[in-house]
Amino acid sequence: MAIYDIFKTYVENAAEGPFFSANIPKAASAAMPVDFLGFTLNSPIGVPAGPLLNSKWIALAADLGFDLPTYKTIRSFSHPGHPLPNIIFVERLSKNEARAIEHSAHLAELSITNSFGMPSMSPEFLMQDIQKANASLKSGQLMIVSVVGTANRGISFLDDFVLTAQLARDAGAKVIEANFSCPNVDKAEGCLYMNSETVAEYVQKIASAIRPVPLLIKVGSFANREQMRSVMIAAAKAGCAGICGLNSVSMKVMDEKGDPALGSSRMTSGVCGGAIREDALRFMKDAAAIKQSEKLDLVLLGCGGLLLPQHLALMLDAGASIAMSATGMMWDPFLATKYREMHANVH
Ligand SMILES: Cc1cc2nc3c(=O)[nH]c(=O)nc-3n(C[C@H](O)[C@H](O)[C@H](O)COP(=O)(O)O)c2cc1C
Q: Is 166 close to ligand 1, i.e. is its CB under 6 Å away?
């Protein structure tokens, strides 16, 4: 049973969800401590930006043992996002194409396209709700707040990024993640992470505006390893504390007739879940190798298709300090507990 209702709007899910009525298992809080940017976390398991829409969702994820939950990407102003459908099940056909399907047969392969356009609540709401979300955490837990800038707001795109990061900091964020890679928005917003000069400029300005709060960046797949290396070096030099990837992978998503599944205004959208697990693990192995060879002081957070406890272990083995699940957490809220149980049996 999913805790997010894909037939309801984002606003309805935010108001009525999360849809969870089971008991919280005792094992959800079993300790397997790790260090993260100077904080001690109860486990290396988290939720990346997206599914945790507000403080109620953060509180549930924290109760369920996701010790590093991320507060959904916020903007500097209230924004409605895209209309329904926002989520459909898909199967991947090729590197850049996927087809809508009724439902995935197996949880291990469950894949969706999500297309929300990064809706956001108002700054007034966020100032209170981020505080409330922080207050719901227990010892050994930490929340990241994800932010994004918006073009054409009367100030530069970069300045709006800074403004939004400062809003998050003023609301009490202890770690901030800048989303440089959303595949469902304008090109300017989505492709930032691929250019090392832009990354250096943006990281430098955002990081210095929120210091001492650490800044992470959210990235997608790189065109090649050289691009990845130059971006990671630029980010670290500019004061970035860590990198989270992968974001959902942009694909052409078609219905059974070959027409755009989300309508002609959304020809491509981000695919996440099982279909991108191999990409995400490869990304992490490459990132870890670059981090080591260049001696970069960057913490690595991995997500993408981690649906079963063994997938979380694979991501940590690939070199991530933290393994995170968005799609997996939405369809299996007990994932963090299952990881603890698996770990306890192995050790
Ligand atoms: C419902 C949903 C909403 C998302 N919204 C955001 C977002 O607002 N900002 C962001 O950086 N990533 C967003 N993502 C991407 C996830 O953080 C993650 O990078 C991606 O889904 C891959 O992980 P997964 O396969 O575990 O879902 C979203 C993902 C999902 C499923």
A: no
